[in-house]
Amino acid sequence: MAKFSNEVLELLAFIGGKENIATVSHCATRLRFVLKDPKKADIEKIEGIKVVKGTFTQAGQFQIIIGNDVSTFYNEFIQKAGIGAASKDEVKKAARQNLNLLQRLISHLGEIFAPLIPAIVVGGLILGFRNVIGDIKLLEEGTKSLTEVSQFWSGVHHFLWLIGEAVFFFLPVGITWSISKKMGTTQILGIILGITLVSPQLLNAYAVAGGAEAPVWNFGFTQIKMIGYQAQVIPAILAGFVLANLEIKLRDIVPDYISMIVVPFFGLVPTVLLAHVVLGPVGWAIGSVISDVVYTGLTSSLGWLFAAIFGFTYAPLVITGLHHMTNAIDLQLMSELGGTNLWPMIALSNIAQGSAVLAMIYLNKNDEEEKQVSIPAAISCYLGVTEPAMFGINLKYVYPFLAAMIGSATAAVLSVGTGVMANSIGVGGLPGILSIQPQHMLTFAIAMLAAIVVPFLLTIAFAKKKILVKKEKEMAA
Active-site residues (predicted)? Predict the structure, then answer.
């Protein structure tokens, strides 16, 4: 007998029947639907199904949180519904039909950076560890670092830069590859395009910023500066999309029997030329403006207000998918400033959401069914994965979500007010401290404490005072 027979039939009925499903796929914990008419889905009844831990709509997809059994549930669902399995890419493509221009742009950004996050996280942790052993004066009464007294740690410090450089200096290669993969074009051409942006024969972007004179390609009638775009995000994005779209257009007009020769040549060569003449300089200028505006806003006399607004609204941004834009801004800040003051606030927001769930565990400590959802959600949230906590608990009850937003804003003000900077994007939640620059770890720890305590206490207070209590439940505090 199938494990979820009854639940599958219930979901099929409550979602509007087979005829209301355009496509469906699943990820690690969620079913992802594109519905022909989202209004036909009875969300209240769907969330009442025993195995459902929450629902939300994002990027045109109606997503249902199932948990670790999602693949089993999915297989039984498509069998009972009599519909074909769809890939996540097919679902995303169908979902975009429900999005406006801005939402589509954000969706594209999310898909570009998602495959790069593991490498960026590793790179951030490595930079943090190098700073701990190389910059913090831990030994000889606070006068020397580990690398200064130990040849072993000096060697480790030197060796780890090999990986850090690969991740961040050569990030454009990953971006152009990711774009070619997403667009379904030739991935090796994307990789080659990225390499032409960071080739060793080009003058390093940081040297150019420091005033060094760049060599040139001399064509007689004109010259092109040989400038590299190491760690630059926007030039790589612009070049990657130009190459992908050019290749797609060429495929449409070039006969198949010569496409193997013509398409790569007339796709890659013009794009590389355009990247160094137009796209690179323009992208660099745009990126510099963005990073300057964000950094100036966070370090100005009104930086505390910017921090409070960002900390308060980041969790709602996650619901809409707009949070994907912060990846590009973080990476641009890193390339321009050697660190980011935006990422610490994101890690704090994750912690705040987990702390609100922790308070719900305390309030509902006698509810075994509730704990089956809330305990795993709190753990995953503290490790940087917020969806189970946000959609399974906090948004369900409303007041813990508000408490988490207030706690996040409080912690963000402390973080920005004390000048906390991260080396890079890193692991969210509590492990986020590993990405913080060593000189700021203590003050960030204080901000983390605020992100734990404030949402916890506010959630309990809101429950006791019945503030925004959406769902009545016995509180056994």
Answer: 27
Strands 21-26 and 216-218: unpaired
Give the whole-angstrom CA distance, residue 74 versus residue 8: 9
Is 352 in contact with 401 (CB distance < 8 Å)? no
Q: Which of 187, 178, 25 is nearest to 114 (CA)?
A: 178
What whole-number distance in Å separates Cα of residue 237 and Cα of residue 232? 9
Q: What is the spatial distance between Cα 241 and Cα 457, in angstroms, rounded to a whole number?
A: 48
Q: So where are the chain's domains?
A: 5-99, 172-283, 299-465
| Domain 5-99 architecture | 2-Layer Sandwich (3.30)
Active site residue 381: no
Over the stretch 132-185, which tens digit does the pLDDT of each residue have? 788 777 787 777 888 888 999 999 999 998 998 888 889 899 999 999 988 889
For 376-427, the pLDDT digits (tens) are 888 888 887 777 788 778 887 889 999 999 999 999 999 999 999 988 776 7
> What H or E segment, with its residue span, contains residue 285?
helix 280-299
Active-site annotation holder among 9, 20, 22, 27: 27
Q: Among 130, 162, 160, 161, which residue's Cα sits nearest to residue 147? A: 130
**Residues 446, 414: Cα–Cα separation, whole Å:** 8
Q: How far apart are CA 439 and CA 390, in angstroms?
A: 32
